[in-house]
Structure formats: structure tokens, C-alpha cells
Amino acid sequence: MTLWFVFALMTVAAIFAVLLPLGRGGRAQSQGSEVAVYKDQLAEIERDLAAGLIAAPEAEAARVEISRRLLAAAGSEPASEPTSSLKWRRAAAVLALAGLPLIAIGVYMPLGSPRLQDFPLAQRERGAGSGMALENLVVQVEQHLEKNPTDGRGWNVLAPVLVRLGRFDDAVRAYRNSLTYNGESSERRADLGEAIAAAAGGVVTAEAKTEFERARGLNADDPKANYFLGLAAEQDGRKDDAANIWRALLAKAPADAPWRPLVQTSLARVGGGGATMPALSDETVAASKDMNEGDRNAMVRGMVERLATRLKQNGDDVEGWLRLVRAYLVMGDRDRAMGASTDARQAVANDAARLRQLNEGLKTLGLDG
């Protein structure tokens, strides 16, 4: 009710703003006539002459010409103009005050949507407007780096954003500059290799592989370097080598590592992790070892469904959502994985921290955006 009352006040204010000038006398009419315009021009000439902006001969010539037009205009204007009736003006005001809101309501009721739900902020931020804002920020950073090309921190910030925007060739250049001005690190070498692979459409080229090997030389346990070296082995047809690399990576990985689901999915893809076994927990795997294939699949699917039901009742569990999406992916049900990711984003849309954590986890699962 408060919102509608505010709308009503705004409507009344707008109507008065339009009708108030109509309620005044005929004096305003003469103020806007040609005579008033020419008088203003004569006064302006006197001001310019006093300020020294024009010479006296030019001022005199202009004064004569404007005076001639002033006399012509004064002679052609009628001596008086009829004023509108006060009674009719009041009637028009009453009609506008009462009629316009009624007409607006009459049009809105059949065409409007009073029960339309709110559009959450998180969804608005994912719209085109946020994309344009991000690109504008990138342009500003690029302009800064053109003037300050040795700003290593700027290149370090810009590079991953360029990857997100799909500008992989520019990201490769940015990562190279980051290495030049920030120094060597396994993370930067691995990020450069990832950008090179992305620019090649996901293929780990020889150049990308070299960067991953350099990253692993700086840190033998670098997860990104090891993952992509396993991917390179898979693309070369060496699935056993890929499986061995990924098994070793998982053996050293923390239980809550955000990239762990991606490696598990990849391992299952090359036949090294049991594609029918969604990685819900170590306890689940241990409990299912003595079951036959049918019973094991039924047990896992039942657990997945129970997890999905629980998350519908309490959607704040980001890790739970990621486990659910991961399980659907490993079971080969990508449509349900996409649906679960959408439900998860809606559930945490009002919590910026949880939404950011969820998006990072989904990105590792290949469901970014």
C-alpha cells in the first residue's frame, strides 16, 4: 500500500507541474513575444558594447536593424489576446486529477503483471549490463598498461579476466608480461600454458606442454600443471599415462581441493576411476566395494537423490551442491547437472560469498556461466 500511495503522490505532482502554468494569467504570453525577444537583443548589444566585445560602429548597425524589426513586430501584434476562462481551467484540472489515474489503472490491469516476482540481484549482475561493465574496466586497465607497461601487478590482474572474456591470445600476451615483470613462478607458468591451450581450442600444444613442464620443474606438485600434462597424455592416446598422472595428483590432493572433482571426472573418462561411481565421499566408495554393479549403482543413485532432496530444503550448502553436480556429471547425466547448477545459483543468489564459491567450484567442473 505504501508503494501505491507514493505512486499516487508522484502522479498528482506531475499533473500539477503541467497544469500550474495554465492557471496563470496572460502576462506570460507577452513575455515570450517577438517584442520581448528584440528588447532582450538590444539590451545584450549594450552589454557587449560596454564590455568591449564589439566595436561602436558594429553595435550601432545592429541596434538599427533590431530596432527596425522591433517596430515591425510591435505593429503586427494584436492589442490584446483573450484569456482562458478560470472555470474551464479548473474543470480541466479536476478532470486530469481524476481521469489520468483511472485511465492508467484501466490500462495496467489487463496488460500489467502485478504478481511478477522480483528479479534477484545476482541474476541482474549476470546480465549483459555486467558484461559491458567488465569490458569497460578491462579497457581502462589496458589503457593504463599502455602507459605503464612495466606494471607487473596490472598484467597479473588483467590476464585471468581476459581468459574469462574468451580473449585467449591477449591473455597469453598478458601472462608473458606478468612473468617478465613479476618473475618466475609455477602458478604463472601453468596459467600461461592454460591460456595457450585455450587459444588452441583446448588442445595441449607442444608450446603449452613446455610451459606446464616448466611449471612442474618449479613445483612438482603444482595441480594445474599436472592436470594438463595428464590431459596432454590423454590427447596423445596414452590413457594409462594420463590415469597414472591423475591418480598421483589425487593421492596428494587435500580432501576439499576445489579442482578435485575435475580430476576425478577426467580419471573416470580414461577408465581409471570407475565411471559409474560418483565421487560423493570416501566412505561411500568403501561401503560399495563388496556389492555387485547393479546394487552399487542403485545405492549411489539413491544417495544422489537424497542429497538433491536435502538441498531443495536447505540450499545454503555450497559443497553439497558441488557434490550433487559432480555426481550427475560422473553418471553421465549432464542435463541434470546443468539443472542442479541453476538451482544452486538461485539458492545462494542473495549471498555474494557463497555465490562466488559456487561459481568457482562449477568452473572446475566445466560448467562456468
Automatic annotation (TrEMBL):
Cell location: Cell envelope
PANTHER family per the UniProt record, alphabetical: CYTOCHROME C-TYPE BIOGENESIS PROTEIN CCMH
Q: Which domain of life is it from?
A: Bacteria
| Protein name from the UniProt record | Cytochrome c-type biogenesis protein CcmH
Which InterPro entries does the entry link to?
A: C-type_cytochrome_biogenesis (IPR051263), Cyt_c_biogenesis_CcmI (IPR017560), TPR-like_helical_dom_sf (IPR011990), TPR_rpt (IPR019734)
User: Which keywords are on file for this protein?
Assistant: Cytochrome c-type biogenesis, Membrane, Transmembrane, Transmembrane helix
The residues that cross the membrane are 6-23, 91-111
